[in-house]
Amino acid sequence: MDRFIATKKIGNTLIIEGEELQHIFAKRVKVGQELELFFEDKLYLCLLEKLTPKNALCIAIKELELTAPLPFITLYQCVPVELKTMDFIVEKVSEVGAFRLVPTLSRRSFQDIPTINKRMERWKRVALSAFKQCKRPRPLEIAPPTKLEELRADHDLNLLLDNFGREKNPKDLNLKGLKTVSLVVGPEGGFTRQESELLRERGFIPVKLYPYILRSETAALLGVGLIMNLSTPPQSTCQQ
Ligand code: SAH
């Protein structure tokens, strides 16, 4: 079923305007058709009642339950120096099923917090758009930026994605019954030795995903995808 973002809600009526209305026209949605509409963290099953060039009026039939598949994956993504790469990461880890993304500042990452803060709205829009497209149960949460030194291994399983040494293979991890998993991914230049040691001392388990050196965005996408795939049946992730 097609999913859209509502602009307002008045009583039981949800209204779609602006750019989102163009998507309604592009998808040739017709009056009388059922839709899923997202508004203020809630998802509704609706019926399109009226469509004009100015707006679409939809009647809410019922609120849909927003349960997320386990495990809840938090991605601590060191912010790429090429800031635009973060748009790709937000979109792709949304699709493959991360629950929350925390833009993380490390020695070799993009450092400027005010600039990162300015990008937050954009990343939230990218996350919403991926949520619409892939039909995940709820949008990827984008948390406020944090510093790598502040990370704690406080999930059921805490992983440090690293391309050095003889780290564990994801297949060797016991993912049965886990509710929360965290993954830390370095920026383009990787972690410094001190950062890698600090995270290991804190209890993050180093994992090597692949024999090759991956780009940061590839590692994030593959890491989240593998954890989702190894720990949940495929049908409980994105549904078409
Ligand atoms: N410049 C670094 C590579 C950094 S790649 C170097 O020359 O070694 C960016 C990040 O992607 C890394 O810090 C790590 O978190 C992740 N990564 C890259 N390849 C990986 C692999 N094979 N397994 C796990 N993580 C990997």
Low-confidence stretches are: 236-240
Output mean pLDDT.
Answer: 93
Beta-strand percent range:
25-35%
Globular, elongated, flat, extended or rod-shaped: what is the shape? Answer: elongated
- Summarize the main sheet: 7 strands, parallel
Q: Given the helix and strand composition, which structural class is it? A: alpha/beta
CATH class of the largest domain: Alpha Beta
Give the fraction of residues assigned to helices.
25-40%
Task: Give a structural overview.
This protein has 240 residues and is an alpha/beta fold. The protein folds into two domains: 3-64, Hypothetical PUA domain-like, domain 1 (Ribosomal Protein L25, Chain P, Beta Barrel); 68-239, SPOUT methyltransferase, trefoil knot domain (Alpha/beta knot), CATH 3.40.1280.10. The chain is 28% helix and 28% strand. The chain is built from five helices and 13 strands. The protein has helices at 18-26, 85-96, 113-134, 193-201, 216-231, and strands at 3-5, 8-10, 13-16, 34-39, 42-51, 56-64, 72-78, 100-105, 141-142, 146-147, 157-161, 180-185, 205-207. The strands form two sheets. Strands 7, 8, 9, 10, 11, 12 and 13 form a seven-stranded parallel sheet that branches. A six-stranded mixed sheet has the order 1-4-5-6-3-2. β2 and β3 form a beta hairpin. α2 packs parallel to α3 (113-134) and α2 packs parallel to α5 (216-231). It is elongated. The chain starts with a strand and ends in a 9-residue tail after the last helix. The model is unreliable at 236-240 (pLDDT under 50). The structure holds S-adenosyl-L-homocysteine. S-adenosyl-L-homocysteine (SAH) binds at residues 161-163, 185-186, 189-191, 208-210, 212-214, 216, 219.
